[in-house]
Inverse folding.
């Protein structure tokens, strides 16, 4: 059989076939012009959803019912609006975002990291809406992370391209029963006190911290960034995340933080198999009472109140020095409007409603577990004091007072988490990377990714 | 190829042959068009993308062969290629060697009901979707999974670990999942091949005083040359192009120790939006697969003549 076809000729035929097919196409990608400013001009009257029947298309995240619950309530108050909602897991949304926004633009969409989307002109500039609805009068920290310069860089300033449904907040969850066993009645107020609690837990045979760090999810970035905020100010970390010129993650105080994390690893404060633990396993272990502390965010508050009622506590990461500034990873649950969305006005009206309507804010707290967006003096629903949700909401107020909100170090670039933080944190656990090497490697990857952009 | 056939017989019956050739082409047009649209065109497009720097949406920049340079100089990308070759040991060597041994054993007890049970049990992994296999094995290999429980039970509690989360064991652990999946396929193929071997050969060998080992080495293995070649080809390709098992069980972690080209291409294209680099790596992977598979084919055929 091999004799019938001379490989040379078949190969040549293949090359020719491929050549013709390739030659038929121009360079990939569009050179579409920038959307004109017309879509973003400020209106004198704030836009509404009108009174005519209207169907809004939404693209939301599976497993987090908040967005859908809000749309249901919205339709109750505005019966002319119906919703056509598609849901996917966040990882899928991240992978699909550019194509969906380009080919099938939704009116409202849960957004991953937005820099690239802005660079490709896929998101509507919300400056006009911000002006007409008065979003620009809200505390600036709520919008900061969603502002981008021209072409998507730097982040943290410039035009508004998305809005949060709420402001999530991260810190230390703890198991109250286990805390009582080691004599911890109030959460630690300094890093030294936290270290003592961890050591006591270890001596008592408890797992001091349950955390995830397996597969493609470097969950030790949570304690690492909290330690960074404990040792140093939050602003330089934000500058790095926002890709401000000259920003670096390789600073003396961040090195102290990474060394502290290594100390925790070497002391056995994390489970031995932390490099094989995924997020779901961490949650089930914490709920099951298998660990004293867990670094996580308030999107789990409602869940923890349900699964371990009265037994979960929340505290912000304590500062290294007594009375030092508090800081936390805190980010808006970002939703945006596609650049070519059909019902952009109604979507903007919905986002404003989420932040200002009494009923919507109540749903935001009950279902979302986080502080809703909106003016500082806006209505807040009552939450029972023994609920962990009350703890996370109070922490949100503290962070606002300290101006200590940071974005997540995993959001600095599209690839930094998967490509750099995760493998290097896993290596740190395995003793194959040093704290200094971790920061240097991540900084080098960061610089390379920015240069490549 | 068709043209050369036409040319050779042209001076005898020109009209009929031409018509026949035309009809022949008509018959393969449906298959050919599918092949062109779903195989050739994507390959051509991938090759084209590999010459550009492109995020999948916006404007693209021509970069020539720079992406190929990156594949061989970026340690992350190059290491994933090395990992793929390490996986060949588990995906190919283990199933083929073990498959030969098992097939030889089953052949000896071919009349008994046990042979049927063994065949079914061994082939079962082929029927299970790889995603399900990956999930099941990640439970088995977890720190509290069955494998560690068994080890503790027999007094080997000291070696228990999270097999998929340990730098030293993650790649072998993933490799064992692949070996488990592919063992059934190899066993069945080899068993089918064995049933074709003329029993007289074995009889003659036995008369000459050959033991079971001698029979296996001198008759079974040489007669199975083609089947072994098919097994090796299929499993080598499975190793080089592996994706599902690793995506489910480790996602390339910990610390990139189980990163393979298939997964790397996926991350590059859909998470990091470096479509050019992803395409270049895909082209390199395709050429590597061809470079590995063709020699095996030639080897099998040469032995046939």
């Amino acid at each position: 059989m091999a004799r019938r076809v001379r490989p040379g000729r078949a190969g040549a035929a293949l090359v020719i076939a491929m050549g013709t097919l390739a030659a038929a196409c121009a360079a990939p990608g569009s050179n579409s012009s920038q959307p004109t400013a017309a879509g973003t001009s400020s209106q004198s009257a704030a836009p509404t959803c009108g009174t005519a029947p209207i169907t809004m298309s939404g693209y939301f995240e599976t497993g987090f019912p908040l967005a859908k619950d809000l749309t249901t309530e919205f339709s109750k108050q505005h019966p002319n609006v119906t919703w056509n909602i598609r849901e996917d897991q966040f990882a899928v949304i991240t992978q699909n975002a550019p194509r969906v926004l380009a080919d099938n633009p939704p009116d409202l969409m849960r957004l991953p990291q937005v820099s690239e989307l802005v660079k490709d002109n896929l998101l509507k500039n919300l400056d006009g809406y911000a002006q007409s609805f008065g979003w620009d009068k809200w505390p600036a920290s709520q919008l900061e992370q969603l502002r981008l310069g021209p072409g998507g860089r730097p982040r943290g300033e410039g035009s508004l391209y998305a809005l949060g449904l709420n402001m999530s907040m991260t810190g230390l969850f703890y198991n109250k029963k286990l805390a009582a066993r080691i004599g911890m009645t109030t959460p630690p107020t300094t890093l030294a006190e936290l270290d003592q609690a961890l050591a006591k837990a270890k001596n008592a045979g408890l797992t001091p911290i349950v955390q995830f760090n397996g597969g493609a999810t470097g969950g030790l970035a949570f304690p690492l960034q909290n330690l960074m905020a404990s040792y140093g100010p939050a602003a330089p970390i934000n500058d790095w995340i926002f890709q401000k010129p000259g920003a670096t993650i390789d600073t003396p105080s961040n090195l102290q933080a990474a060394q502290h994390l290594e100390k925790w690893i070497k002391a056995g404060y994390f489970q031995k198999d932390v490099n094989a633990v995924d997020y779901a396993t961490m949650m089930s272990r914490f709920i099951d009472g298998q660990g004293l502390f867990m670094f996580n965010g308030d999107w789990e508050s409602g869940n923890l109140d349900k699964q371990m009622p009265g037994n979960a506590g929340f505290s912000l990461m304590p500062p290294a020095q007594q009375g030092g500034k508090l800081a936390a990873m805190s980010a808006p649950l970002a939703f945006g409007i596609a650049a070519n969305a059909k019902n952009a006005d109604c979507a903007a009206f919905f986002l404003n409603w989420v932040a200002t309507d009494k009923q919507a804010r109540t749903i935001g707290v009950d279902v979302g577990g986080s502080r809703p967006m909106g003016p500082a003096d806006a209505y807040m629903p009552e939450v029972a004091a023994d609920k962990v949700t009350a703890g996370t909401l109070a922490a949100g107020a503290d962070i606002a007072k300290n101006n200590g909100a940071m974005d997540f170090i995993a959001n600095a670039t599209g690839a930094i988490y998967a490509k750099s933080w995760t493998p290097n944190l896993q290596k740190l656990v395995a003793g194959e990377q040093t704290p200094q090497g971790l920061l240097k490697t991540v900084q080098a990857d960061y610089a390379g990714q920015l240069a490549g952009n | 190829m068709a043209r050369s056939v036409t040319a050779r017989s042209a001076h005898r019956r020109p009209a009929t042959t031409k018509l026949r050739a035309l009809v022949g082409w008509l018959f393969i047009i449906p298959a050919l068009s599918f092949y062109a649209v779903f195989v050739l065109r994507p390959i051509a497009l991938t090759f084209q993308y590999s010459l550009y720097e492109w995020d999948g949406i916006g404007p693209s920049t021509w970069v020539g062969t720079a992406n190929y340079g990156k594949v061989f100089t970026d340690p992350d990308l190059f290491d994933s290629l090395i990992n793929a070759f390490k996986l060949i040991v588990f995906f190919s060597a283990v199933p083929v060697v073990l498959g030969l041994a098992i097939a030889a054993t089953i052949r000896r007890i071919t009349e008994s009901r046990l042979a049927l049970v063994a065949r079914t049990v061994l082939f079962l992994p082929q029927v299970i979707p790889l995603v399900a296999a990956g999930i099941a094995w990640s439970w088995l290999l977890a720190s509290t999974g069955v494998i560690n429980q068994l080890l503790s039970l027999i007094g080997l509690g000291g070696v228990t670990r999270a097999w998929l989360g340990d730098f030293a064991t993650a790649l072998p652990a993933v490799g064992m999942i692949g070996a488990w999946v592919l063992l059934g396929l190899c066993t069945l193929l080899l068993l089918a091949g064995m049933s074709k071997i003329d029993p007289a050969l074995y009889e003659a060998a036995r008369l000459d005083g050959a033991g079971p080992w001698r029979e296996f080495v001198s008759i079974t293995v040489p007669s199975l040359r083609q089947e072994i070649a098919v097994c090796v080809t299929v499993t080598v390709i499975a190793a080089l192009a592996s994706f599902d098992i690793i995506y489910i069980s480790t996602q390339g972690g910990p610390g990139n120790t189980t990163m393979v080209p298939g997964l790397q291409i996926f991350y590059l294209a859909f998470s990091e939006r470096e479509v050019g680099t992803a395409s270049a790596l895909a082209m390199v992977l395709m050429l590597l697969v061809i470079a590995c598979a063709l020699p095996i084919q030639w080897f099998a055929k040469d032995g046939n003549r």
Q: What stands out?
A: Residues 1-10 of chain B have pLDDT under 50 and may be disordered.
